[in-house]
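Lecture 7 notes: from sequence to structure.
We start with the chain below.
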Amino acid sequence: MTRVCVIGGSGYAGIELIRLLNGHPKVELYHIVSNSMAGRKLWEVYPNFKGCLDVTYEQLNFDKIQQCDVIFTALPHGVSSEIVPKLYNMDKTVIDLSGDFRYNNPKVYETWYGLQHKAPDVLKQAVYGLPELYREEIKKARLVGNPGCYTTCAILALAPLLKHNIIEQNNIIIDAKSGTTGAGKGLSPGLHFTQCSQNIKAYSVAVHRHTSEIEQELSLVAQREIKVSFTPHLIPIKRGILVTAYGNMNKEADWDTVFHSYAQFYKDAPFIRLYEEGKLPETNHVAGSNFCDIGFVLDKRLNRIVIVAAIDNIIKGAGGQAIQNMNLMLGWNETTGLMFPGYYL
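Predicted structure tokens for the same chain:
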């Protein structure tokens, strides 16, 4: 069995990653790190694990790290870049779930995160962990920067259209709605039940960090500079992201032609599900799964395409995608431990 370590195993992304790894047929959860929960049983903190996984949170132990094959880091931005270089220099396979190793240019990271990057040399070695775009690069990588949740959904919704020059590069609008787990485990007044229940709110309008990540990857797909208008919203559900993206058509195309462009782009992507004409994704269709569902409508009156995409923000948008990357990095089938339907109800 392949031994894995999860550093930062008490947050929402980390605990969902642990839940998925517990069901993976090829790995052993060997070292689960949480400084704040060290000494406590996992099931004491998350009772759903009782009777299923009897492990204890530990302080970071480099002797145990040395015995692991794969390290997942689910730490806050700025913290990962302190520890990942040490892991990388130990010749470990590392998958980082923070924003620290997603950018090609550390200056872009510093502008949007307000932090100086602590490991720009190691950043150069990282591969952006979106398998649908970088499958072959991920297979050869030893360090992967797992994409953000909003970015995963938005990029997958738009990449085929820009690759095939179906939409204009300007005036792309992305409206995204996320469940509250997307805000993380930390408590703030805006995440109190009384503020979230029966309420929808926009936040970080025009300044959300994921804007830069979306623009970086869409620009690479399109091979020209892409700028987007991105507005995220918090909605009163626990998990799920629904992206509605709008683009002006660059050329005349019917529904079948556009669908064929998506189908060709994602022909080797087992976790992309394309919807037939007249149907659109919903968060219930993907909650609890690693799938990204995509549908679209052609608004011929305005010569515009409206794309709707849905993912589970803490599976395809975090832990599930991290495991998908691990599978590729280790030469396994990328669906291993991940090919299951969502909850729906």
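Points to note: The chain is about 35% helix and 20% strand. The mean pLDDT is 95.
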